[in-house]
Amino acid sequence: MTSEGFAANKANEQAIIQHFSGLRQELASIWTKIGELDMEKNEHVLVLNAISELESSRKCFRLIGGVLVERTVGEVLPAVTRNKDGLQQVIAKLTEQMEGKKKELTEFQNKYNIRLKGEDVPEQQAAASSKAPQGVLA
Asked: What pTM does this model have?
């Protein structure tokens, strides 16, 4: 192999590794965002549980864009419900995106035979288990 061919092969290998790392980072980013939104949705559920049984004319306070505003329970309850429903929809879409990215990552990993550290090759696992002693007196 010539030095130009070796350099081109090395550059191609680096590009593959960079793309794989980018896919893993995107997957981690989506996972983090889903976690954040799920926590926010749970906070909305707690608020809904706390104020749902109150009188609709009772005053309550709501934080909107960093400003605390005074409203009534009757005004806040539908808004918080809409926000919770919107968060559920966004979480569902992100979950679909994450599944697509997982599939893309797996296909890319199989296409280029990428193995992570600590991950055994399936053929090696099968060969190791077949060479293991079979009797009681090994």
From this structure: 0.78
